[in-house]
């Protein structure tokens, strides 16, 4: 009798518990992942896109489209609404969300959007309680839906446009002999004793590596966040500031009274170091910026850059030792050839980047102009703190402030499709133009200052 009563009570408790669980499940749907990142559709959710069988949808570039969001939650005591946001507005922009009424037991919402650059845009879906007596309450939130924007078929393979055909520019072929002769002339300026001194006291070179590969990328990242640059532009700016010293660094060192031997050494060493630190910097900052493209560091281009510097410089050093008369002739050609190359480089850069500059983002112009200035000031301050001489300070300043933007440009063009690549390439292009223009202005001011100073000294001597 007791056992029968006990079993009867147990059955009653079990029935009550089952009823309670059914009631609870009708109020709040169960989810297997509180963050809404399940790898397969979750039919226990209130909000779904389409029939709920897929979490990814694909649309072409630069088109308008719609998706249908359905809500299974039914409660007459409150008014519901659905909010949809794109978590990457460069890829997808939500235009509006409209309530299309009930279809059966579900309520449907039409979401209109505009696709942009190729890529993936996660969506943020929120089901809201719009009770008039309280603030909107989030009933459910989903982040597992993704809209993939596919590139146009015509853009299926990387196409570099005018930028990729840098090597085919006729002006470059006209300048190549001048470039080679100019580099040979710089080889005649190299002092072996200075090279030996750098082996014993490599402080200037170490300062250059720290400034170029640690401080400058960090500055670019902080600046891109402050200026609210799009992800692609932010990454382009960071990669530009992660590039080694430009080949024009020793040219500016000569014109501005720096140490040419140190400048050449810093350019060569930073280019070698870039083979390891550029990929590392790219990986770190692409994750911080949430950019998922695989970045390709142009190792072949880095090797060609090294050879294009090392071979003519070594030739010039050999000429200095074996043919001193020719060496003196080459040294007289450095300054005029250098000015021609600077002007030719600016003209060629504007010519190649006309298509990019036509759609330039205003904020990247302001940001790009500050990069060389910050690099120059950073290098000079670091060298001053290390108590280097004035010529060495100028050299370190120039090597940090003048980046090899063509390497950054190659990374952008190899890693993205055409539209994205051209957009991201705005950063290295503007930095390159700003750097060359600002350095040319500094050189002109320097020569004017030297001329007036020499004139004033001559006048003083004549009066005495």
TrEMBL record:
Signal sequence extent: 1-20
GO MF annotations, alphabetized: bile acid:sodium symporter activity
Bilayer topology: Multi-pass membrane protein
Keyword Signal among UniProt keywords: yes
One GO cellular component, as annotated: membrane
Coiled coil: none
Domain NTCP5/P3 N-terminal positions: 45-151
Cellular compartments annotated: Membrane
Main localization (coarse): membrane
Keyword Acetylation attributed: no
Membrane-spanning residues: 204-222, 234-253, 260-279, 299-319, 339-358, 364-386, 428-449
Alphabetical UniProt keywords: Membrane, Signal, Symport, Transmembrane, Transmembrane helix, Transport
Sequence similarity: Belongs to the bile acid:sodium symporter (BASS) (TC 2.A.28) family.
Protein name, UniProt field: Solute carrier family 10 member 3
Organism of origin: Erpetoichthys calabaricus
Designated gene of the protein: SLC10A3
